[in-house]
């Protein structure tokens, strides 16, 4: 985010200190409305610097409300979005960031507003055992940063966070798949592991997903599918512990990793290993 600099006079600093001495929004409202946009903006900066992000967000929002057409309003929208995020008030941060994007779509800081909007979801991603709604939303907004602002300072960071969020979703699928596998619900487990292999194949969860497919298919007596899963795993992750485990499991059953089936895994094998896309 670009850092705005402006001359802060002794009068402005004194005004900010006087305003910050107020104890509540009701008390300070009168003082705020008697102050200039620059004075309130300076107050917000002082509050933010002292760690009072929620108070700073309120001050910046007041600049926007009281002086909507001033030169300070545009800056205040962005600073309120940032301050709300710092305070952990993610919904309010999103709203302010979205306003900036809506009002100033061509501005150079629109990329940061979009990135901040994505962060408001990303920073709320919870462990894989809970609902992943915020993860899906974070992926959508991060993708917007990457595609709409590829040359911005935030594109690479967005790409990294996108990959981490995607891995998080794959981890959710793996958790459910393991649950089904452990309880002998092999078909349900296979559906989850297949989702990882097909939809999240670039994530770190893929090697284990292929190994678990070997386990699940063997448990169902589907030896050809198990061999093919082992072959895909061996081609892509030969040095992994998951391939070692799958290889041992297959050979113990008189099998070996090879393309033996004619199902969805065989299609992946032909595409990845043989380069046959039809």
TrEMBL record:
Q: How does it sit in the membrane?
A: Lipid-anchor
Q: Name one GO cellular component term.
A: cell outer membrane
Q: Boundaries of each Outer membrane lipoprotein BamD-like domain copy?
A: 35-229
CDD domains assigned to the protein according to its UniProt record, in alphabetical order: BamD
Q: Which domain of life is it from?
A: Bacteria
Q: How does it assemble?
A: Part of the Bam complex.
What's the protein name?
Answer: Outer membrane protein assembly factor BamD
Its ancestry begins with: Bacteria, Pseudomonadati, Pseudomonadota, Alphaproteobacteria, Rhodobacterales
User: Which gene is this protein's source?
Assistant: bamD
């Amino acid at each position: 985010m670009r850092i705005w600099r402006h001359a802060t006079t002794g009068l402005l600093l004194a005004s900010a200190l006087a305003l910050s001495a107020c104890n509540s929004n009701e008390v300070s409202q009168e003082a705020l409305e008697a102050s200039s946009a620059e004075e309130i903006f300076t107050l917000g900066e002082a509050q933010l610097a002292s760690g009072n992000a929620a108070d700073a967000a309120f001050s910046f929002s007041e600049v926007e409300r009281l002086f909507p057409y001033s030169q300070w309003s545009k800056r205040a929208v962005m600073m309120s979005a940032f301050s709300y995020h710092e305070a952990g008030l993610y919904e309010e941060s999103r709203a302010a960031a979205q306003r900036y994007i809506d009002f100033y779509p061509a501005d150079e800081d629109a990329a940061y507003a979009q990135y901040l909007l994505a962060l408001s979801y990303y920073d709320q991603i919870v462990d894989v055992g809970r609902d992943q709604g915020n993860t899906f939303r974070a992926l959508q907004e991060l993708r917007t940063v990457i595609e709409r602002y590829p040359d911005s300072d935030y594109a690479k960071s967005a790409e990294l966070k996108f990959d981490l969020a995607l891995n998080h979703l794959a981890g959710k699928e793996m958790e459910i798949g393991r649950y089904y596998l452990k309880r002998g619900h092999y078909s349900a487990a296979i559906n989850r592991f297949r989702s990882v292999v097909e939809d999240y194949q670039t994530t770190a969860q893929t090697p284990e997903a292929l190994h678990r497919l070997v386990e699940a298919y063997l448990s169902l007596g589907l030896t050809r599918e198990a061999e093919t899963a082992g072959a895909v795993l061996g081609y892509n992750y030969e040095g992994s512990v998951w391939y070692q485990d799958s290889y041992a499991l297959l050979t113990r059953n008189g099998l070996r990793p090879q393309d033996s089936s004619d199902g969805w895994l065989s299609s992946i094998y032909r595409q990845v290993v043989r380069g046959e896309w039809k």
